[in-house]
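Quick question, first post here. What does this chain look like in 3D?
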Amino acid sequence: MIAFNRIRPRSAAPDITPLLDVVFILLIFFVVSTVFTARGMEMELPSANSSTPVYGKSLEIELRENGDLFCDTQPISSDALANRLRVIAERPYAEQPQNILFKAAPHADVVDFVRVVDMVRTHGFGNLVIVTRPTAPPSKAVDEQ
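> Answer (accepted):
Ran it through. Tokens below.
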């Protein structure tokens, strides 16, 4: 008799082990990268009664008391800030920041303050938000008379 070798059918499901490895690596990458998205520097801000929270993608500009400028926590010159605003303004609207947050130290020079505000508005941004800290609500004193 003739001996026939039986051919075993191959499994139709591919091996997904390498795919799971890649998925877990991507998951770890995104979890770790979200830790580094928190940014900002501690700065004494002036208080205001009309403070409201701001959400969404934003560009953060800081003006220190000595006139130093920072853009997204990086030191920047006035000319470089103007150039960066120009580049951002040339992007499509969907890629532009929703708000431009301007943090000015309470005792910063008014001339520097107005210069930055004018620079932002000159480049066509109407979404300038001047960052303040909320004032404490007035305490309600109870008269005990």
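Residues 17-35 form the longest helix (19 residues).
The two ends are 118 Å apart (CA to CA).
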